[in-house]
Specification:
Blueprint: H1 7-14, H2 43-55, H3 65-85, H4 99-111, E1 119-123, H5 132-141, E2 144-148, E3 150-151, E4 156-157, H6 159-165, E5 170-174
Parallel strand pairs: 1-2, 1-5
Antiparallel strand pairs: 3-4
The chain binds pyridoxal-5'-phosphate.
């Protein structure tokens, strides 16, 4: 299946990303097919970052103006993320350095609550960032790892395999909502 290309839409999206408007290789405008290979940043993000450093760069919890602006901005950003994800409360939203670091922190926190022989379920469809942290606690706490297969034909999760992986000892199921692997 191919999607119809709308040149005006492409142009309007491209125009928001200064790095995509710098000709390379003899005058061509660059195209990045692999987003994680270097997530491009739009002008409005650059402006927001610049505004942050100009008006509210401070540690949090201070009585001074820039600290209070910082905290208000972070709280608003968490609320916006909660609305986007349909989370009931913005306290459920955590920002961190990156997903891998947060997953290691989360898995370590959960690991402390588990007993040897407890089981965690991982999928063959996940990025290493959602696998390595769980394998680490499996080693540290003597846990059993069970794997969920995928259907190779359409790259969906094999739900029978998931069901078979669940037991009375299952304590964690770590799975993606959608996988960039496919
Ligand atoms: C699907 C997916 N999950 C997780 C990650 C890891 O993200 P981070 O670089 O924020 O640790 C990536 C990075 O490429 C990814 O593509």
């Amino acid at each position: 299946m191919s999607l119809p290309l709308n040149p005006q839409l492409i142009e309007s999206l491209r125009s928001q990303f200064p790095a995509l408007n710098r000709p390379v290789n003899g005058g061509h405008l660059p195209v990045h097919f692999d987003n994680p290979a270097g997530t491009q940043v739009s002008q409005r993000v650059m402006d927001a970052v610049s505004n942050y450093y100009t008006t509210m760069n401070a540690n949090s919890g201070g009585a001074f103006a820039s600290s209070q602006r910082n905290d208000a901005m972070v709280e608003a950003a968490r609320q916006i993320a909660a609305d986007f994800l349909n989370a009931p409360d913005y306290h459920e939203i955590v920002f961190g350095p990156n997903m891998t670091t947060l997953s290691f922190a989360l898995s370590r926190a959960i690991g402390k609550t588990l007993q040897p022989g407890d089981e965690i379920v991982l999928t063959m469809m996940d990025h290493d960032a959602n696998i390595a942290p769980w394998l680490r606690i499996a080693e540290d706490y003597d846990l059993v790892v069970r794997w969920v297969d995928i259907h190779a034909e359409d790259c969906t999760l094999d739900m029978d395999s998931l069901e078979a992986a669940l037991t009375d000892r299952t304590k964690v199921v770590a799975t993606v909502h959608a996988s960039n692997a496919v």
